[in-house]
Specification:
The protein is an alpha+beta fold. It is 70% helix and 14% strand. The protein has one domain. It has 2 helices and 2 strands, in the order αββα. A hairpin with a 2-residue loop joins β1 and β2. α1 packs antiparallel against α2. It is elongated, with a radius of gyration of 19 Å.
């Protein structure tokens, strides 16, 4: 799943947790595998999913940043060779 899709799913779960915490008994989320109904009773599971998605987003952001750094360094080295 791409960074954008992972972030969007994280946002949906955060919204669901907020709605449930503010009084809703259940909330429906559209996930890549279909609609999912989450309930107040599943709040711990929802937070586990949120924490997992946060970790995935952080890892994907780090991978993107590392890739950009390597590319920039490679471009810099290439430019130095041609001076």
């Amino acid at each position: 799943m791409s960074l954008e899709h992972t972030q969007a799913l994280l946002d949906k779960y955060l919204e669901a947790a907020e709605k449930i915490a503010s009084g809703s008994q259940e909330y429906e989320i559209e996930t890549p595998s279909g609609r999912r109904r989450v309930k107040r009773a599943n709040l711990k599971e929802i937070w586990d999913i949120i924490n997992d998605l946060r970790a995935q987003v952080a890892a994907k952001n780090a991978a993107c940043s590392a890739g950009k750094s390597r590319f920039s360094l490679a471009s810099f080295n290439h430019d130095l060779q041609h001076l």
